[in-house]
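Q: Predict the assembly, please.
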Amino acid sequence: NAGVTQTPKFQVLKTGQSMTLQCAQDMNHEYMSWYRQDPGMGLRLIHYSVGAGITDQGEVPNGYNVSRSTTEDFPLRLLSAAPSQTSVYFCASSYGGQGRNGYTFGSGTRLTVV
Amino acid sequence: AQSVTQPDIHITVSEGASLELRCNYSYGATPYLFWYVQSPGQGLQLLLKYFSGDTLVQGIKGFEAEFKRSQSSFNLRKPSVHWSDAAEYFCAVGSRYGNTGKLIFGQGTTLQVKP
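A: Predicted assembly structure:
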């Protein structure tokens, strides 16, 4: 079991570039989420999904898109990178009602936008 | 508004001493409650969770947490800290209602362990 796999681990982008952060889980979890982590701010929810074909916005969705065509994959797309999107991004998955069993996190993608 | 507060940004304890990390939440109804730990450069690992029953829950690595409804708190404790416990700790809450599975995280508490 690989758990939650995120790629790449590190990325540097120029302002205005686009890219996709990949996230895959092999646990057949229905819930998946993307968070960004910034110093002193904890983790903030960007987008989440409760199953294949169903996504919704979290608290900081602007500048990001997601899709969930399969149970396993939940990519995060940056449409036009900005320096304010410099952060560490975590993908997580869970199962059971309301994700009450807790989330399994990937190891993160450290993104720098210059 | 729903929120989670971890009042202590940074805590330093001596190895072998006891530890308590505080967590307070503001929520419409009793939420699901979680504690996660993050070692430097790593993702988050679930320490323990509460969603019903006994208000004192046991987790991994010798941690426990107590849910106090009257105080809207879910404090994390460990009787004797080890140097390997140095990390950042996050409290999180999730809703029992609406099929979202969303979590709200506190700002985190960094634990330093002195030899």
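DSSP finds no helices and eleven strands in chain A. Chain A touches chain B at residues 4, 31, 33, 35, 40-45, 48, 50, 56, 58, 90, 92, 94, 97-108 (CB under 8 Å).
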